[in-house]
From TrEMBL:
Any one GO BP annotation for this protein: DNA recombination
Source species, domain of life: Bacteria
Pfam families reported in the protein's UniProt record: Transposase_31
Organism the protein comes from: Geotoga petraea
Protein name: Rpn family recombination-promoting nuclease/putative transposase
Family: Belongs to the Rpn/YhgA-like nuclease family.
Transposase (putative) YhgA-like domain span: 5-207
GO molecular function: double-stranded DNA endonuclease activity
InterPro entries given in the database record: Rpn/YhgA-like_nuclease, RpnA, Transposase_31
């Protein structure tokens, strides 16, 4: 799995971001963050481990269970057997469900939960493979009562208008805007536009954007001939812009404390600083940049890094 696959998976593994994604592109009435249960996908066939980047959520609401399975496709070569891959994955999810409900599965009234398969594709070429299984089976019309059939839902980034992404005014939409536009425009122009939208975010969205921003910029370098990560290091304006997200957010929180608007938020600010610092360390951001952005010392950053390394062991 490539770096970009990992980052997109990390993005949608964030329940808040995932919920915003679903609201924008596949709305389910009444769906709330508390209804989502994140599931592991390592039990799915290892035959596709190299190419698979996926996210699996279970919706548990009113005694009912529905699975949302999303494949994240970034490859330049389009997989014409995608619908067949989906079938394989769905069967594995059902196998896993049966394994976890062995006793119930033997009962007459036992039924498998529905799985909603969704493809998110952000490649440059137009997605042309069929979305219905029957389109990949010979003589399907003559044997339609004897063969399985389903279709997956496709979300193609290039088909989504820029105005819609920015109009969402949330972290998810703006990050997808960066992914969609960065290869066609000057990096500073795209980042400046994203900052304009960032200023309109609610506090929760600002926090989420900051959590994923730098890692997202790093993976965008894969879509261009320019190493964006190196570019950022040399562009003072971009570095200042990057740091300003954190600075402005913390300044606003500290002002709220002085005005007595939010009781006990000081502890929350410290937690946010530590969590943001951890995210930056995971992305190998220079400690001096982190120190300047977070307003904490290099020694504190090293201590956080030591604790992270200890937790790995």
């Amino acid at each position: 799995m490539g770096e970009k696959d990992k980052k997109f998976k990390e993005l949608l593994n964030d329940k808040h971001i995932f919920l915003e994604f679903m609201k924008a592109f596949f709305p389910i009435e009444g769906l709330k963050e508390k209804d989502l249960i994140q599931e592991k996908t390592d039990f799915i066939s290892k035959d596709y481990t190299e190419k698979r980047s996926d996210v699996l959520y279970k919706i548990k609401k009113d005694g009912k269970e529905i699975y949302l399975y999303i494949l994240l496709e970034h490859q330049s070569s389009i997989d014409q057997l995608m619908v067949y891959r989906f079938l394989n994955y769905m069967v594995k999810i059902w196998d896993h469900y049966i394994e976890n409900n062995k006793k119930e599965s033997k009962k007459k009234n036992f039924k498998l939960p529905p799985i909603i398969p969704i493809l998110f594709y952000d490649g440059e070429k137009r997605w042309t493979p069929p979305i219905e299984l029957k389109q990949k089976i010979k003589e399907s019309e003559n044997f339609k009562e004897l063969i399985p059939n389903f279709k997956y839902h496709k979300i193609e980034l290039n088909e989504i208008e820029e105005e819609k992404l920015l109009g969402l005014k949330n972290a998810m939409g703006t990050l997808l805007y960066l992914d969609k536009k960065i290869e066609n425009k000057d990096i500073l122009e795209v980042l400046e536009k994203s900052r304009e939208i960032f200023e309109q975010f609610e506090e929760t969205e600002k926090e989420k954007f900051r959590s994923h921003f730098y890692g997202f910029i790093k993976i965008l370098s894969e879509k261009t001939d320019t190493d964006i990560e190196e570019e950022i290091k040399h562009y003072e304006e971009v570095q200042e812009m990057y740091e300003s997200f954190a600075k402005k957010y913390i300044k606003e929180k500290e002002e709220a404390i002085r005005q007595g608007i939010q009781q006990g938020i000081q502890q929350g600010i410290q937690k946010e600083k530590i969590e943001a610092t951890r995210n930056f360390l995971r992305e190998n951001v220079d400690k001096k940049v982190i120190s300047k952005a977070m307003g904490i010392s290099i020694e504190q950053i090293k201590k956080i890094e030591e604790e992270m390394n200890q937790n790995k062991n």
